[in-house]
Design goal:
The protein has 311 residues and is of the alpha+beta class. 32% of the residues lie in helices and 21% in strands. The protein has ten helices and ten strands. It has helices at residues 12-17, 27-40, 60-67, 113-116, 121-133, 162-169, 183-190, 197-202, 212-222, 234-253; strands spanning 45-50, 71-78, 81-87, 93-101, 106-111, 134-140, 145-150, 156-161, 294-298, 301-305. The strands form three sheets. A four-stranded antiparallel β-sheet has the order 1-6-7-5. Strands 2-3-4-8 form a four-stranded antiparallel β-sheet, sandwiched between helices. Helix 2 packs parallel to helix 10, helix 7 crosses helix 10 (234-253) and helix 9 packs across helix 10. The protein is elongated and about 60 Å long. The termini are far apart. The relative contact order is 0.14. The chain binds a DNA duplex (14 and 14 nucleotides) through helix 9.
Length: 311
Amino acid sequence: MCGLFTKGGNHAILDRTINSKYMPELPEIETIRRGLLEKVLEKPILSVRVNNEEILRSPRRRFTQTLKGKEFISIGRRGKMLIFTIAEEGGEPTGRFFLARLGMTGRLVYFDEENGSREGNSYARKKSYAHAHCHFILGFESSGSLLFCDSRKFGYLEIVDEAGLEAKLRRFGPEPLDKSFTWQALEKILDKRKVSIKALLLNQECIAGIGNIYADEILFDAGIMPTRRASLEREEIRSLHRSMKRILKKAVEKRGTSFSDYVDAAGEKGNFQNFLKIYGRQGKPCIGCSGIVERMVVAGRGTNFCRSCQK
DNA sequence: CTTCTTGTTACTGA
DNA sequence: ATCAGTAACAAGAA
């Protein structure tokens, strides 16, 4: 699978801006994307159920009309946004896209009663969570459902056409795991920026897909204080670039970080929380020296750092 | 009770 | 106009 729009991929501009399986990224969303690829593609949608309209960014009717009787033929990701290409039964694209943003606590889980019932605890967990905060359900003709659940409701769903999608995509900075994201590219982004390096890493318009956990992990790995101005020295930029690639790649391999809410498309937790070196470790000994991990607020977010390992 | 939380965006002021 | 910093959104956990 290469293109987001058709299997032939004849929408060159958009294809270039949306990653496929060759550009893994923002670990949790990428893990969900990969999980859903195996579950929901080319399955006719039988029903669209809306339990709570608050999380819809398009009119309820638009979801029903655009999705019923259609199917998804690909799932892309840009930063932390998932992009489902909607097609007629048989695979002809409709020019409409189903977008999902999970916010802080959003979940997109594929649920199949028949398969799930054999999974014991996993089934019970999914069922209880779904009962509490499930706002949107797509039912597939064959069997199975795609659930959108979100306790805090910072996440949302949206239907857009190609122009709407392009407008959304234009706002994202580069994908950090893309080969074209070189240290020179990073240097250009950081050049003359006065904001803190942490704020810059969190800004999706500068670099797409990094959140609070990975910002802290990357800065610790690179030995850079989160409060430093973004315009770093060249050697620091190269180090930061190396750390971004290393941390994000490993987190994708470990299927993301489940610090509290995150689960993948099958309702399972990630593993990268077992490899965190600085995030959530305030008051504990630093892994790299004899010091204690400290916490402060940077860019409005809780930030862990080690003052002797990070300069 | 207080403070915290994996994200984003509107608003404020320089 | 542009940039940087903060509050707010909502719900639950500690």
